[in-house]
Amino acid sequence: MSTDTPAPRHKFIVYAPDMTDADTLQRRLSVRPAHLEKAAEYIKDGMFKVAGAMLTPESIASPTAEKKMVGSVFICEAESLEEVRKVMQSDVYYTSGVWDKEKLVILPVALATQTL
């Protein structure tokens, strides 16, 4: 009988704002299919519990407003902060200069709700 118990998994919040130069949106759109394909794998594997693009407030001003993406946000489940950091640093948005590497934030989070 095995006494191995799985390592505890923790929740992490990731704030990944985009760079602010004029070419950021074009870089984002050019690599978006690869980003979404890889994200789908992490969703299926259970690491990404919530994931999406951050939008400007003007993006929701009306039903026809242009949706302007300005970054990404995630709630992840992993054994360690380092595991999440490695995933984020290997993401095509990180390696292609879409996300602002200096402003990337990854922190453990204690969720008040357990619907994830």
UniProtKB/TrEMBL annotation:
Gene3D superfamilies: Dimeric alpha+beta barrel. InterPro entries: Dimeric_a/b-barrel, Sec-metab_biosynth-assoc, YCII. It comes from the Eukaryota. Residues 22-100 form the YCII-related domain. Signal peptide: none annotated. This is YCII-related domain-containing protein.
